[in-house]
Amino acid sequence: MKKSTIKLLFIAFVLQASFASAQSTYADVYNIFQANCVTCHDATSPAGGLNLVAASSTVYTSIVNANPNNPAALARGDKRIKPGDPHRSFLLRKCQNGLDADNGITSPSEGDPMPSGTSPVPLTNKEIELIRQWIYAGAPQTGLVVDTAVVNQYYNGYGIASVASAHPLPTAPGSFQIHVGKIFLDVNSEVEYFLKHNLNLPDTLEVNRIELFLSSQSHHYIIHKFLPGAAATFTDAVRIQNPSTGAGSSDGYNTMVSAFQASRNDVLPPTTAYQWETSTVLDLNHHFFNTNPDSVLATDVYVNVYTQPKGTAAKIMYSDIITNTSIFIPNTSTDVTFTKADFDASATNMMNIWLLSSHTHKYGIDFDIFLRNPGGSTGANIYEGFYNSDYTFNQGYYDWEHPPVRLFDPLLDVNPRDGLIQQAKFNNNGPSNVFFGLTTNDEMMLYFIQYTLGTAIVGINENASIENKINLNAFPNPFSSNTKISYDLKENAAVTIVVYDVLGNKVETLLNNEAQSNGSHVIDYNAKNQSKGIYLVSVTIDGQTYTKRIVLAN
Predict the structure, then answer these.
(1) Which of 69, 233, 387, 443 has a Cα-to-Cα distance from 310 of 20 to 30 A?
(2) Chain centre distance of CA 372
(3) Cα four-point dihedral sign 513, 517, 520, 524
(4) Is the dihedral of CA 441, 442, 446, 448 positive or negative?
């Protein structure tokens, strides 16, 4: 049995529904409740104030995004059904019968499991899974959004569990766990998805440790944090990234928290922490594959988050992904090397690097990172790709699936005006030429960096820091065709904005010495006639020029 199409359980491109008569997945869910729950949830005296005998549309309104009557469930932030979040869906927690070990009833005050009564018959695993996957799909009222054939295949013995058992909840004060799963993938497939997760924080948190448990079939797992107000742009459901266009991701709407290519326990250096404000909404990004020819893969990811009191950290830990999208690797079975300098000529503070890790796909055979000297030449090697995953010895080759993660103790001070140089080597012995792309049949060249900001750069003048003062930004970035260039003026000024390609050729003039008043300004830039790649936005204010790198993704 071989299927080459990407098909997740909750994507209904091809349906062979075993819940035979339903015209929508919600109709299947409604029928499950009708067959198992109406004895207690009748119209006369419904348990929990929930009448499941009512018409389908009435029941839908009463469960999806509806508050539970149970005070304990309401206090923990549950809805009866919360789209995209099975772990905050009280109705599922009541009836899931141990299928998800960490998602059952948490206390006697939440009542008995369902179905209840003198001779309760629990829902089957297939029925519970259908409800869970419907929730991950956003709990829509219409549409076939769950492939029940894949459910059946997995629970009929043709399934692989990526994580053997649930990982215990962390017990340290202030700690908590985020669990995503099960998410299913059909045979001979790969997929990358995003799922937003609202933390509902009562106060700003400092996170000083992230422990992540990941399956061996995972290509990467990245924890993003939405930019303020950006989460509302995206649906409360698992979003599948289009492997050709990148649609479905939140790139340009987020900042990175941390990236993992294998299970890892990141304990941040003392006096540092990630800062998560009360409004923080995470976007969880998982890229994984199933090479098995006849068994469905079920993935779980567990993230243990450890915190400390607000105000403990002396410095915030920042994270970034630094890419080189300008790569082309012919299928000639010869080594091809790419080198790219990464620096910020307008930076105002030293950068103190804690973590470096690289990322390529299957044709990557080496990856090194060097300091960049003030004149632009290559300096000392600070990241050798031939090291093993925890950077304890040189193993003599680059393992692209488990690349080295180097931690610096003490932190490495780098002047970001000089910056770093990334250098990667590839050898394509495959069937076709490859470019930078999103699937494992494409290639990538990038590195992850985590750092704090240190002392002011010696000798900086007032004009060099204007970029920070004017809050020059582009949103979204990367972008598909349109981005908004924003900046603040402290006083009236003449403004010129020009877009250049990476070779320094002028692409377009957006403003030409235009007089503007003080305050915030936004300029729309439409790049529909340009090819994908990296561009520079040059903003000149009363003779002083500052730049912002933007990435046109397709």
Answers:
(1) 233
(2) 30
(3) negative
(4) negative
Interstrand relation of 533-541 and 493-501 (parallel, antiparallel or unpaired): antiparallel
Contact of 354 with 274, CB cutoff 8 Å: no
Question: How many residues comprise the chain?
Answer: 554
Residue 324 φ then ψ, to 5°:
-125, 100
β-bridge partners, 220:
287
* Tens digits of pLDDT across the chain (554 residues): 233 334 455 443 333 333 444 589 999 999 999 999 999 999 999 999 999 999 999 999 999 999 999 999 999 999 999 999 999 999 999 999 989 988 989 889 999 999 986 667 899 999 999 999 999 999 999 999 999 999 999 999 999 887 656 788 899 999 999 999 999 999 999 999 999 999 999 899 999 999 999 988 999 999 999 998 899 999 999 999 998 888 899 988 999 999 999 999 999 999 999 999 999 999 999 999 999 999 999 999 999 999 999 899 999 999 999 999 999 999 999 999 999 999 998 888 999 999 999 999 999 999 999 999 988 999 999 999 999 999 999 999 999 999 999 999 999 999 999 999 999 999 999 999 999 999 888 999 999 999 999 987 865 433 333 444 577 888 888 788 888 898 888 888 889 999 887 666 788 999 998 998 887 888 989 987 888 777 888 888 877 777 787 888 76
Q: Where are the beta strands (DSSP E) in 317-359?
A: 318-323, 328-329, 335-342, 349-359
CB within 8 Å of 469: residues ≥ 6 apart: 488, 490
Which residues have C-beta within 8 Å of that of residue 77, sequence separation ≥ 6? 88, 200
Helix (H, G, I), strand (E, B) or coil at 25: helix
- The Cα–Cα gap between 542 and 544 comes to 6
What is d(CA 69, CA 77) in angstroms, rounded to the nearest whole number? 12
* DSSP string of 378-416, one letter each residue: EEEEEEETTB-TTSSSB-SS--TTS--EEEEEEEEEE-T
Pairing of strands 296-308, 176-185: antiparallel
Structure token pair of residue 446: 């990038």
DSSP 8-class letter at 150: H
The helices-and-strands tally (H runs, E runs) of the chain is 7, 29
Scanning 301-381, the segments in alpha helix (DSSP H) are: none
Q: What 8-state DSSP symbol labels residue 103?
A: S
Domains of the chain in start order, with CATH, are 25-146 (no CATH), 161-316 (2.60.120.310), 320-456 (2.60.120.230), 463-552 (2.60.40.1930)
Q: How many CB atoms lie within 10 A of CB 441?
A: 15
Report d(CA 193, CA 238) in Å as an integer: 7
**Which residues are bridge partners to 194 per DSSP?**
239, 285
- What does each C-alpha distance from 290 to 183, 185, 186, 271, 300 come to in angstroms? 12, 7, 7, 41, 14
What does the block give as tokens for 505? 């050729």
Taking a C-beta distance cutoff of 8 angstroms, is the pair 154, 184 a contact? yes
